[in-house]
Design a protein that fits this description.
This protein is an alpha+beta fold. It starts with a helix and ends in an 8-residue tail after the last helix. Strands 6, 7, 8, 11, 12, 13, 14, 17, 18 and 19 form a ten-stranded mixed sheet that branches. The longest helix is centred in the N-terminal third of the chain and has 31 residues, at 26-56. The protein contains six helices and 19 strands. The chain is elongated and about 80 Å long. Among the domains are: 1-62; 285-418, Gyrase A, domain 2 (2-Layer Sandwich). It binds zinc ion (ZN) (3 copies). One zinc ion (ZN) is lined by residues 373, 375, 378, 383-384, 386-387.
């Protein structure tokens, strides 16, 4: 992996050297700059390699369990800053925060991600499609391998991701060497990423167990559940990515490679995806009366998921972003839904076990959150920043209705539950 990247930078340097041979005037300057940039990245990578070798020879430095999951880097190619910026993120955040077009603040500067860092490998393209009826995702190596009808609920998929789309799992991101680095402006205009998460591998059916002191609720825990997060770009407009160099900034006509030279590569339209494993908990409410509505009631399930996560964070006193959730149908032919909660802390923080323990209190807090929003102008048939909305869930704001969750939880928990906190 490290070798691949090293070879990549060396090739980029050779390209720049070839560029220099035929260059004149300003182009000559640009070629020299490209060479220097590649040299700097090679040196940084070699330093890092030495550090890793050193750490590996000192076993007490390496507590294996603490290793983060897939980490991606935003490579900074511009050379007019002496500090070397170390911009790294967990891939789940990286596909949004380092996505081409995203602005990244570091050391008081605004950097713009402009491309996928292919790291000297070919762009690997796969396909996916989401059924909003049951919130399940199909993946395949060929578009034709994805059946027209949803194999889980049997309907023709509708909704935002109902069209079969190409996707890539990025190894990293990079700035474009020609982009200026600007000082931080007071206001950033960054459209939020349209990103959604789906559970693709959960607990086996026989693993589900009734909650010990909440009759009617069953739970399925899996320490290595698999999730699939897709980012479709600002406003769901997808990314336009050069197959040859990874360039993904919206430009018309020819473009330059992130490391400088001209590129004639064709583009594909694709989404950015992260597939990862972590602690997952599936919660089923089938035994409660009344039972929750069917899984195709998107407004209900999205509102429940959002209110529940917020209530977990309140109850366990943890940051809201350490956990996230989604929902889906329980299985083939079933129209019943299940709530899915997962741990976002690399290596897992053990929250899932605590959710199981504290479930009755968490559900009460969920009810209080949707019933009693502190904002007097927030309508029951909607939501606001004080109850359900966050910057990250902007694409669901229109579907949030706190009254539906409040009414259901009230009949399940009893009206007196709203009084307690
Ligand atoms: Zn379906
Ligand atoms: Zn290109
Ligand atoms: Zn509100």
């Amino acid at each position: 992996m490290l070798m691949d990247r090293l070879t990549g930078f060396e090739r980029q340097k050779q390209e720049a050297e070839t560029q220099l041979v035929n260059a004149q005037g300003r182009e000559c300057y640009a070629a020299l700059r490209n060479i220097e940039s590649a040299d700097r990245l090679i040196a940084e990578l070699r330093n890092r390699e030495r550090l890793i070798d050193f750490l590996a020879s000192e076993p007490h430095w390496l507590p294996g369990y603490a290793f983060p999951r897939d980490v991606v880097k935003l490579l900074v190619r511009q050379q007019n800053r002496s500090e070397s910026l170390r911009l790294e993120r967990d891939l789940e955040y990286g596909i949004a925060e380092y996505a081409p077009g995203a602005e990244v603040i570091a050391n008081g500067w605004t950097l713009v991600s402009g491309a996928i860092d292919l790291q000297n490998r070919e762009l690997e393209v796969r396909f996916y499609r989401v059924c909003s009826g049951c919130n399940r995702v199909e993946r395949a190596n060929q578009a034709t391998d994805i059946p027209r009808q949803c194999p889980t609920c049997g309907t023709l998929p509708t909704g935002q991701r109902a069209r079969t789309m190409k996707y890539i799992v990025p190894r990293g991101f990079t700035t474009l060497i020609d982009d200026p680095i600007e000082d931080v402006r007071l206001y950033r205009l960054k459209p939020p990423p349209n990103s959604e998460v789906f559970l693709v591998e959960g607990a086996e059916p026989e693993r589900f167990q009734p909650h010990p002191n909440f009759p009617g609720i069953t739970l399925g825990y899996r320490p290595d559940g698999q999730l699939f997060r897709a980012n479709s770009g600002p406003k769901g407009g997808h990314f336009s990515i050069c197959r040859i160099c990874g360039h993904a900034k919206r430009t018309s006509g020819a473009h330059k490679k992130p490391w400088g030279p001209h590129c004639n590569g064709g583009r594909i339209t694709a989404d950015l995806v992260c597939e990862f494993r972590t602690d997952t908990l599936q919660i089923r409410f089938d035994g409660l009366r009344p039972a929750p509505p069917a899984v195709n009631d998107r407004s209900f399930w999205l509102s429940l998921q959002t209110a529940f996560i917020a209530a977990v964070a309140d109850t366990l006193v943890i940051p809201r972003r350490d956990l996230d959730g989604t929902y889906r149908s329980q299985g083939e032919g079933s129209s019943a839904g299940e709530l899915v909660i997962y741990d976002r802390v690399p290596g897992g923080a053990g929250y899932v076990a605590r959710i199981r323990q504290e479930l009755p209190r968490i559900l009460q807090r969920t009810l209080v959150r949707v019933r009693n929003c502190p904002n007097p102008s927030c309508v029951l048939a909607g939501s606001c920043y004080a109850c359900l909305r966050t910057y990250g869930n902007q694409f669901s704001w229109d579907e949030f209705r706190r009254d539906r969750i409040a009414d259901w939880l009230e009949s399940v928990l009893g009206r007196s539950a709203t009084a307690g906190n």
